[in-house]
Structure formats: structure tokens, C-alpha cells
Amino acid sequence: IQALPSSRELKDFERRLKAIKIDTKDPVKFAASIKEIQTLVSEADQKIKMVRETSENLNGDLKKMDESFKELDQLVKQDIKDLEKHFKLPQIDVGDFSKKLFLKMFAEKLVTVQKYMAIAREYMPPEKSEAEKKADAEEQIVPRPRESGRNYTFPLAKGYPLFWMKKAQVSSEPNGSEYSGRIQGEILDLTSNPVQLGKPTEINISGDFPGQQIMGFSTQITLDHTTDKPKEIMRAAIESFPLEPQKFSDTDSLRFVLTEARGSSQMTAKLENQEIQILLHNKFKDLKYDIDAKSDVVKQILTRISQDIPIITLEARASGTWSNLKIGIRSNLGEEISKGFKRQLDEKLNEAKLKLKQLVDEKVSAERDKLKAEMDKLKGKLTQEVEQVKNQVEQTKKDAENQITQGKKSAEQGQKKQVEEAGKKVLEDLKKKFKIK
Q: DSSP secondary-structure letter at 90?
């Protein structure tokens, strides 16, 4: 900018241009004047070139300044992102959350299934495997060989087990007992020796227990102990039953108890040899809770979730051996609680992000905006100065070129007039010489 022609230099340039007098009558002076003006035009071209280069350099510098401000914005954004990493949300495992809520309930059913399947195998023993037979043979006392004689074993071609109940009808009506009920069903081929009988035991029972408010109970059980690979299959369902209070949490900091509910249940259990598979589907409605917490936020979340869920669903699975069971539990209650806490954490995180941004803006953006305002002001001033110099130089050049053009035009007109006057003089002289009037 300092290298640009100053206002004083431009005025001096204009003065020099105006000081040139074009004498069209004297060719020597006329040529000298034109040459002097052309020198000024060349000088103006150099100044215009300088102004253009300065303008380009200025625009480049201003562009770099704009990029610097953009880089500053990016640095601020990156700083905010780096700080946000410290607010990273914890991942809530929905399955683990549901398991903590309903594992106790499912475990009680697993214990019941294991108990009765063990009783069935004890009193209705399946055929022994080859390994078990070999082990029994090794434990037997081997008698001393007799001096004479021979033992003969005759296979049992026909016969019945020591105990065999081919068919039994089961029925009852409610009485004064709380545990009595209206039930009906049948038991088929119950025996102490399933291997000898060669038929699986079938148990089919259904009914209601009004005293316990259990309605629509039904079960189908198959006990197949006829081979060395015993298999038990059970299907059970209850259309309606009262749920005992479920204490999801009962501590000084949080009390979350499902006090009342009506439930329905479907369960399938299969034990083949030593492999167990159990699937449980439960639904609970008419829900009532007891919720209290030291944290108002936690209490608010649980209360809102409990109001938004009219029905709790529960799906539980178990597979493997009794000594190594893999258990999976899912529930919409666990999912909604997880979502509720995540939603609350999101809100808190967004609040923290907003405060963080406000803090950064307060510390950085104010100074940045102040600096940018000053730079914009300087940018406008410099651009205006360069444009003003450029316009003045171009106008001076234009004036010089116009002056050259006008001088040449005046010279041409002067020469033309001189020729005309000389012609007139020659004509007059001829007239006088030849006395022509």
C-alpha cells in the first residue's frame, strides 16, 4: 500500500499533464509535446500495473486472513469436540438390565423344573448307558468259581414292570382349602420300569385354582425314559395369575417394587439326556408400583416409565447343562428403563455441551468477533484506497490519451487550413497575374 502513488504524486502528475501546451503551428514543438505526453502515458501504465499488482496482493492477503478466521473456527470446534469426549455416554446393556430385574423370577422356575425332572429320573430310571453298565459290572462281587455245575440265564420274553399304571383320570372340585381347585386330566403309562414297558409316560392336566386366583392352567408332560438317552418335554400355560411383589431394588437410595400385577405365562422345557432348553413368555398387566428414590431425577424417570408401560413383557431363555446354563432375559421394562436413563443422560449431556459452547464463545468468540470487525474495517479501507488510486491513475492516463488525440486532430485541422489558405493565395496571385476578375 505504501508503494502506491500518493495523492500528492497524483496531483503533480495531473499538473505536469496540464502544463504541456500543444503548439500545432510549430511541428517541432508539436512533436515534442506529443512525446512528453506519451512519456506521461507510459508512466501512468506503470502506475496502473503497480496498482493492479498491489490490489492482487492485497486480495491474496485478505483471503489468507479469511482462511485464518476459518481455521480459528475449526480450532474452536475441535476444542469443543475434545472436551465433549469427557462427557461420553455410558453404554447401557438392555439385556443385562432386564436380567437384573427378572433373574430371580426365572431362577425360581428353573429350580422347580430341575426338581421334578430329577424326581422323574429317580423313580422312573431310564436304561443305563454302556459306560454305566460297565461301571456296575466292575463293582459287582465276583463269586469264587464252583467245582461243578453251570448257571443258565433265561431272557424275559413277556411280563410287566413291578408297577404300571396304564391310565389314571384326575379330577377335583374346589373346597374350603385355599389350594384346592377345579382340575381334570389324565396320566398314561406311569411305571417304575420304563425300559421294560417301552412306552413314555404322558401327563395332561388343566384347571383353575380360584382360591389362589390362578385361572386357565394347563400342562402337557412327556417323560420318555425308555432308552439310555432319557428325554422330558413339558409345556405349561397359565391364562391369569396374581404376581407376587417383585423387588427390583430395595435400598436406602432406591426403592422400586412392582407391588401388584396380573400375569399370563407360557413355558416350554425340554431335557434330553443332560441338555436342557427352556423358553418362558410372560405378560403382566394391571400394574402397581412403589417407587421412591433419593435422586429426584431417578424417581421422575421411573415414575414416567411406569406410567407409559401398561403391559410388561418378559422373554427368558436357558440352554446348556444344569451345571453350565446360558441364560438370556429380555423385557420391555428393562428396555424402557434403559431408554429413559439414556434420554435423561442425553439431556444432561446436551446441557453440558451448550454450557461448554457458551464458555468457549465467551472466552474466544468475543475476541474473535472484535478482531474480525477490525479486520473488516481495515479491509474496506485498504480496498477503497487502492480502488481510488486506480481510478485516479486510469483517469489521468485517459486524459493524457485524449490530449494526444485532440492535439493530433488540431494539428491535422491546422495543416488543412494552411493548405487551404496557401491555395487561395496561389489562386489570387494567378488571378492578378493574368488579370482575371
A: P
Cβ atoms of residues 299 and 293 within 8 Å: yes
Q: Where are the alpha helices (DSSP H) in 161-258?
A: 194-197
Cα gap 5→11, rounded to integer Å = 10
Burial zone of 382 (CB within 10 Å; 0-12 exposed, 13-18 middle, 19+ buried): middle
**Calpha distance 169→432 (Å, rounded):** 170
Query: Which amino acid is it at 152?
Result: Y
pTM of the model: 0.55
- Domain spans in the chain, listed from the N-terminal domain onward: 7-82+364-412
Contacts of 340 (CB under 8 A, 6+ apart): 301, 302, 304, 305
Query: In 132-200, where do the E strands start and end?
Result: 164-172, 182-191
Once rounded to an integer, what is the mean pLDDT over residues 319-337?
88
Q: What tens digit of pLDDT does each residue of 204-257 get?
A: 999 999 989 999 999 999 999 998 889 999 999 999 999 989 888 888 888 989
The β-bridge partners of 249 are: 256
